Amino acid sequence: MRVTASVSTPLQFAKSPDGGRLNSEIRRLSQPTVWLTFSPDPRTGIHNFTPSVVDEFQQILGEMKQWSGETQGINPSSPGYAVIQSSDPTYFSQGGDLSFFLDCIRRRDARTLHRYSMQCLNVMLQWSTGFVDDVHTISLVQGRALGGGFEMAISSDYVIAEEHSDFAFPEIMFGLFPCTGAMGLITSRCNAFVAERMMTRKRRPYSAQELFELGLVDEICPTGEGEIAVERHIAEHARRRKSRMKIQQSRHRHSALSREEGVRIVDDWVETAMELDADELRSLEMLIMMQRGGLLPEAPKQVA
Question: Organism's domain of life (predicted)?
Fold first, then answer.
């Protein structure tokens, strides 16, 4: 079952003209918590990072940063926790917008593809490092996380995954690789060799248990109990919040993500994308067709 917080207050952040796919609210748990829920694209049913939802993420996270800076230290009830969750029962996220990738490649529009990729990088950096001093971020994964969705999931300070969840980087199937921080994010928790192996492995997705053993997932909970696990973690973290936040800040100083390296990866990714050969483009087209049909990748089924 899912837990419904006793009190929640919608946050009045700007939304995109089509109404937006991000819902933001403050939940009154043991501690006030910003709770972000993002939904599949209503036009396609695909739970991916379209350019419009990336814009929405960037705008909301920027406003959150400004709002947090204005209230922290002034208002003692300011939220010190932020959660990212999917509304979809099957996917945390299916990753990047493959149809958009293919369209840019066919039109030889490297500039637009680069701009999109930089916006994705900015969102990941905002979420993973933009709130280090004041906010403890949490990812709640309740399904499959692919590509950019995998990166988003592990960019939080604490990652909770329901036991049926799994994770994969499918980009190598069509000649690409993760473009918004996978190497840095995984290396900050494991090492570069593990990151390389995960990005080039095609055999099958990684289970939540496998990622827990690698240190990429912090907690596994039974299916349907993710929100309970989040509430429990926040209550425990808050008992020694000051010391835990200092430790969090130290961790970020010792394993800081490099924006310079992120930009280099984006440059390399766009260059590689524009050079995909005919066989790789056919693989990309096939993945798009299967994704639209809900067939790829086959998602883990939740247990009732």
Answer: Bacteria
Strand partners, 167: 145, 206
Q: What is the dihedral of CA 51, 230, 224, 130, to 10 degrees?
A: 10
For 222, the domain range is 8-292
Number of domains in the chain: 1
Look-up: residue for tokens 């990729």?
A: 117
Q: Which residues contact 290 (CB under 8 A, 6 or more apart)?
A: 296
| Higher per-residue pLDDT: 302 or 155 | 155
**pLDDT tens-digit readout, 123-137:** 999 999 988 889 999
What pLDDT, on a 0 to 100 scale, did the predictor assign at position 189?
A: 94
* Residue 203 structure tokens: 């055999």
User: Whole-prediction pTM value?
Assistant: 0.89
Give me the pLDDT at residue 180, please.
87
* Strands of the 158-162 sheet, one edge to the other: 8-10, 22-28, 32-38, 81-86, 136-141, 158-162, 219-221
For all residues of the chain together, what is the average pLDDT? 88
Look up residue 174 and give its DSSP letter: G
